[in-house]
Amino acid sequence: MEAPLLEHQKQQSLLNESVSETKKLWKIAGPAIFTAICQYSLGAITQTFAGHIGELELAAVAIENSVIAGFAFGVMLGMGSALETLCGQAFGAGQLRMLGVYMQRSWVILICTACILIPVYVFSPPILIGIGQQKDIANLAGTFAIWMIPQLFAYALNFPIQKFLQSQRKVMAMAAVSGIVLVIHIFLSWLFIVELKLGLIGAALTLNFAWLLIDALQLVYIFWGTCGEAWSGFSWQAFNDLWEFVKLSLASAVMLCLEFWYLMMLIIITGYLPNPLVPVDAISICMNIQGWDAMIAIGFNAAISVRVSNELGAGNARGAKFSVIVVSLTSVVIGAVIMALVLVTGHEFPPLFTSSPAVAREVTRLSGLLAFTILLNSLQPVLSGVAIGAGWQALVAYINIGCYYIVGLPAGFLLGFKFNLGVEGIWGGMIGGIVLQTMILIGVTACTNWNKEAAEAENRIKKWGGSIER
């Protein structure tokens, strides 16, 4: 009787641990998903109101949002993600005083990065013309890009602040700020663009103000004393070890940018097909749907990076490993549900996004690839979050280069153009790159010595922050 009883107790203990870990996951992932959706909506709202100005203005805002600001967003988010590793592990180790120092170092690096990126905004018209945009759209998008330079510096402040708060699990504050700013942004966009008819200047004013307001409210929350020892004021320590910090930031930027831009390139490549109008419109709709789904993935990415970095910083190797298993299973189940929903509604949802029967048919034809991409992208961001939490950014950057740009893109070109499979061939080849990358990351994660990773976290904190407090 003792053996069955012991087995039952083990199962009950595992169940209780799984429930506890799931609660910890959703306390981070839920607000993080809401925050991502609200911030993603800021540009989408501006783009929607720009449609009331004119078709040219709508195209200019859409191009600036997706190409120029999208490029900057990817670089800045990637550079800021180094903070996720360092702040998360320092918090887990009890080295709270270093979180504020790390955030200030990241501010220094990202503000310098923003200055380096300014020429991309200033010279965006020839850049856009060079990638195939019409001259009138490129010139107006370039004018709008110059007006949006303040947003670039708002990114430089925002991403370090988010990682700083996220590592302490203060995600509800971020969600509240983002929700409040989104409501204000909707009202101001209506006022400046529709009522006062300020055109693109009004659009730029409201979008810049929204991002700067997010920064201001989050800083007030931090300076108010809500973060305890994590914020003890400005420090000259922020300028120490900058080169080591830059190297980790660059590795993070390369890793995330290669992922962030990969599927976005699908639209550009599709534009080189014969008669590309319908395929490009269809792919744009699919990527829009995938973009909203990605907000869920971003929430899980944030949750697992926090859980892994916190547990490794605390020296709890088993806790880090268990978090990876629970978050991966949860994310895949949600991805499978959304995949099934896309497959079941493949004929129903396209007319919601287009009035063109040809485009709707093309979206329906591509819905299988969209569904499979959604399933893959339910697990892949979790594995990337594990990499960020553990500090594997450089390794994953090399994996991404090989899988995405040496395997995936050439396979897409070959299937799409050489074998005349069109957009399905391009997308299918690129999915092959994601499958390969996901399989490699699963192998790396499964073979990880988590005790060794905990020791690495301790060494990293000693190097940049002092001794571990147990």
UniProtKB/TrEMBL annotation:
Q: Which GO terms describe its molecular function?
A: antiporter activity; xenobiotic transmembrane transporter activity
| Record-linked Pfam families | MatE
What are the subcellular locations of this protein?
A: Membrane
Q: Per its UniProt record, what InterPro entries does this chain match?
A: MATE_euk, MATE_fam
Transmembrane residues, as ranges? Answer: 107-131, 137-159, 171-193, 199-224, 245-269, 289-310, 322-346, 366-388, 395-414, 426-450
Q: Does the keyword Transmembrane apply?
A: yes
Highest rank taxon of the organism: Eukaryota
Give one GO biological process term: xenobiotic detoxification by transmembrane export across the plasma membrane
Q: Which UniProt keywords apply?
A: Membrane, Transmembrane, Transmembrane helix
Gene Ontology terms: cellular component: membrane
Q: How does it sit in the membrane?
A: Multi-pass membrane protein
What family, per the record?
Belongs to the multi antimicrobial extrusion (MATE) (TC 2.A.66.1) family.
Q: Fetch the PANTHER family from UniProt.
A: MULTIDRUG RESISTANCE PROTEIN
Q: What is this protein called?
A: Protein DETOXIFICATION
Gene name, please? Answer: TT12
